[in-house]
Amino acid sequence: MTLCLDTSDGVAVALLRDGEELAGARSDEARRHVETLTPLITGCLQQAGATAAEITEVAVGTGPAPFTGLRVGLVTARTFAQARGIPALGVSSLEAIAAAAAAPGTEVLVATDARRREVYWGRYRRTETGVQIVAGPGVATATDLAAAHTDLIDAGRVVGAGVRLYPQALATGLDQDAIEEAGATVVDAAMLGRLARERAAAGAEQPTRALYLRNPDIAPPSRRKRAS
């Protein structure tokens, strides 16, 4: 059984058995990852009628995302996997969004909230077995991102919170209802788990290293220079 976690934007949890979703839960609380994650895992286990002992691997979203929330999911996944002697498999949160949003054979631009009036972004091609990176991931202003990917913007093939936050730049090819739908697209934990399983079966490395793309918002104070 696969435990699937993502804390890149809110908290998403799912349980898979042989790729089939047994249970799933989500909280959009953006600043309560620590308090929310464990109860959601417990609730999914209860919903599935399963125990933690049945979990044989953990799939976790690696971002990009702000430091604090992302770290909660990664530390939880690593700690659980290490304690049980099972693999922890990292998957880009942007790739998980793309896999759920795009039809096979098409490309999609994913733009999520990076704060500081910027977005995390990635351009992906959906295949029959997963997603391929076309460009990115990176961090940019919505205006700069739109200028570099006008084909997908004009075609309305862009999803993620960035669409809702910066519609003037990223949603020129969408009507209001489509903006709301695209802007509400978040990580599907079950899809993230399926990507992890597919890549594990192919022998791909899946490190659980966080993808921050820039320095944390809060940095330790620098040492004061001694007066000479």
From TrEMBL:
Which residues does the annotated region (Disordered) include? 204-228
The protein's GO terms of the molecular function aspect are: tRNA N(6)-L-threonylcarbamoyladenine synthase activity
Gene Ontology cellular component?
cytosol
The UniProt keywords, alphabetically, are:
Acyltransferase, Transferase
InterPro entries in the record, alphabetically? ATPase_NBD, Gcp-like_dom, T6A_TsaB
Q: What is its EC number?
A: 2.3.1.234
Q: Name one Pfam family in it.
A: TsaD
Q: What region holds the Gcp-like domain?
A: 30-146
Q: Name one GO biological process term.
A: tRNA threonylcarbamoyladenosine modification
Name of the protein in its database record: tRNA (Adenosine(37)-N6)-threonylcarbamoyltransferase complex dimerization subunit type 1 TsaB
* The species this protein was found in: Candidatus Ruania gallistercoris
